[in-house]
């Protein structure tokens, strides 16, 4: 079988890429080893940069985002018993939008199917070959048990951090930067209206906490926990007690409600370069991951595939040099976001076994970003996002 671009992974990167390629008149087949229901229900990110919203709007994918997304003009930073507001709208003229990754994935899958896109869920044995040739091959076994071989012009590895694409690149051609953090996030979704109008990033001696939201009826929270902790050790009342202690502020009340889901996510910074090997192009978490503080992961995936769609449009028309610029075009933004996520993470999380010097340095930095307009603008500029890439 033949297609122009074989895409592996039905996360935001792979799905958006297949849509952008269709808009450029390029045919693709997307394969995913999980079920559609699983992909649509996987709880992950929720915050979109200004540029991400504009890209989705330009791509004709923002009907529901524009009606259901919650636009936010700033955040709160809470530390040392005080809550400070940073006004992004005033500092940068830009905003961010809360709209869950689950909803983006649902919107993308619905649109791909409506447009007659080739999506194959529940495949197994995904493999790639011939990456150094002009006709790489993507092979897989369909949900019905048929083995398929797709001859492509290019393959897009959008298969996340644990996918098969990055490991097929010879290790001696890759430069890998990897940092694991000594903490993890316990994330919950709760059926209770948010107790705040904007997100609260909270520094606390017991550990970081974040109050975010999904809809006017549904809240989301994250708690810093040890990376080796098990979710079974966190019954609902223990989670609420920790949130109440960490987020407490005189005169403010945190409302509680039924917890709909909970999970623990480890935190790491990881960048693998280059993001291309012959006719294999990596995008999103397949090439890089950031700790979630600052919400860059999903936004980076969207930025990568925007560049990749344009690169592939030139490649399939015979411009073989187009591929050469892909990796560098993405990596500048990837490293800026990697630095920002590391910086936010380091400023806000308690260091296990850390001494009081670490805490006082964090508090000094938090006071600086909440009192200096220059420092606040720098945070706001990074948080709301970087200019769109073409
Ligand atoms: P993914 O969404 O990981 O998609 C990759 C897809 O490839 C998956 O559907 C996978 O099943 C599929 N796949 C893998 N291997 C194969 C194979 N061999 N064959 C076929 N298909 C395959 N970011 C934030 O900004 N804020 C957050 O709060 C946040 N929370 C997160 C929580 C968790 C548990 C995780 C894992 C990530 C979180 N992120 C968060 C990061 C953000 O969700 C990711 O950056 C984003 O999902 C990246 O999209 P992607 O399409 O590159 O990868
Ligand atoms: C969300 C996640 C983040 O990591 C973040 O910094 C802000 C918001 C969220 O899931 O809503």
The radius of gyration over CA amounts to 21 Å
Tell the overall outline: globular
Largest sheet report: 8 strands, mixed
Contiguous uncertain segments of 5+ residues: none
Overall average residue pLDDT: 96
Helix/strand/pairing class, anyone? alpha+beta
Total DSSP helices: 12
Instruction: List the ions, cofactors and other small molecules found in this model.
Output: flavin-adenine dinucleotide, 3,4-dihydroxybenzoic acid
Distance between the termini: 31 Å
- The share of residues in helices is 25-40%
Give the amount of beta strand, in percent: 25-35%
Number of strands: 20
The strand line-up of the biggest sheet is: 6-5-14-15-16-13-17-20
Helix and strand topology:
Elements: E1 5-8, H1 12-23, E2 28-31, H2 36-41, E3 47-48, H3 50-58, H4 63-68, E4 70-72, E5 74-79, E6 82-87, H5 88-92, E7 96-98, H6 101-114, E8 118-120, E9 124-129, E10 137-141, E11 147-151, E12 154-157, H7 165-168, E13 175-190, E14 200-202, E15 209-215, E16 218-225, H8 236-247, E17 259-273, E18 276-277, E19 280-282, E20 288-289, H9 297-316, H10 326-348, H11 356-371, H12 373-384
Parallel strand pairs: 1-2, 1-12, 2-8, 5-14, 12-19
Antiparallel strand pairs: 3-7, 4-7, 5-6, 9-10, 10-11, 13-16, 13-17, 14-15, 15-16, 17-20, 18-19
The chain binds flavin-adenine dinucleotide (FAD) and 3,4-dihydroxybenzoic acid.
3,4-dihydroxybenzoic acid binds at residues 45-47, 98, 199, 212, 220, 292-295.
Give a structural overview.
Helix 1 (12-23) packs parallel to helix 9 (297-316) and helix 11 packs across helix 12 (373-384). 44% of the residues are buried. With 390 residues, this protein is α+β, with helices and mostly antiparallel strands. It is 36% helix and 27% strand. The chain contains 12 helices and 20 strands. The model has no long low-confidence stretch (mean pLDDT 96). The protein has helices at 12-23, 36-41, 50-58, 63-68, 88-92, 101-114, 165-168, 236-247, 297-316, 326-348, 356-371, 373-384, and strands at residues 5-8, 28-31, 47-48, 70-72, 74-79, 82-87, 96-98, 118-120, 124-129, 137-141, 147-151, 154-157, 175-190, 200-202, 209-215, 218-225, 259-273, 276-277, 280-282, 288-289. The strands form 4 sheets. Strands 6-5-14-15-16-13-17-20 form an 8-stranded mixed β-sheet. 3,4-dihydroxybenzoic acid binds next to loops.
């Amino acid at each position: 079988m033949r297609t122009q671009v074989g895409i592996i992974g039905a996360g935001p990167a792979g799905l958006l890429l297949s849509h952008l390629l269709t808009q450029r008149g390029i045919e693709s087949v997307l394969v995913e080893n999980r079920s559609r229901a699983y992909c649509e229900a996987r709880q992950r990110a929720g915050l979109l940069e200004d540029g991400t919203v504009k890209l989705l709007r330009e791509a004709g994918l923002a009907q529901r985002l524009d009606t259901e997304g919650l636009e936010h003009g700033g955040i709160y930073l809470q530390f040392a018993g005080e809550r400070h507001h940073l006004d992004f709208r005033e500092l940068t003229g830009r905003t961010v939008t809360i709209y869950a990754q689950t909803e983006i994935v649902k919107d993308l899958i619905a649109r791909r199917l409506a447009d007659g896109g080739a999506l194959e869920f529940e495949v197994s044995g995904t493999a790639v070959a011939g990456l150094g040739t002009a006709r790489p091959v993507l092979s897989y076994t369909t949900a019905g048990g048929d083995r398929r071989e797709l001859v492509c012009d290019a393959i897009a590895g959008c298969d996340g951090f644990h996918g098969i694409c990055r490991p097929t690149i010879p290790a001696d051609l890759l430069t890998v930067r990897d940092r694991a953090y000594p903490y993890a996030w316990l994330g919950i979704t709760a059926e209770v209206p948010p107790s705040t109008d904007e997100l609260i990033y909270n520094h606390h001696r017991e550990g970081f906490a974040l109050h975010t939201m999904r809809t006017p009826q549904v809240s989301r929270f994250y708690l810093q926990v040890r990376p080796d902790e098990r979710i079974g050790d966190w019954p609902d009342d223990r989670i609420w007690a920790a949130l109440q202690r960490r987020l407490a502020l005189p005169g403010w009340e945190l409302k509680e409600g039924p917890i709909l889901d909970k999970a623990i996510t480890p935190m790491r910074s990881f960048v693998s370069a280059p993001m291309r090997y012959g006719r294999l192009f990596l995008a999103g978490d397949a090439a890089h991951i950031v700790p979630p503080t600052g919400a860059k992961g999903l936004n980076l995936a969207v930025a990568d595939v925007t560049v990749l769609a344009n690169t592939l449009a030139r490649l399939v028309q015979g411009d073989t040099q187009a591929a050469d610029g892909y990796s560098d075009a993405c990596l500048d933004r990837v490293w800026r976001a990697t630095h920002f996520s590391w910086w936010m993470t380091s400023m806000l999380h308690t260091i296990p076994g850390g001494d009081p010097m670490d805490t006082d340095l964090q508090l000094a930095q938090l006071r600086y970003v909440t009192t200096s307009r220059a420092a606040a603008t720098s945070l706001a500029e990074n948080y709301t996002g970087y200019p769109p890439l073409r």
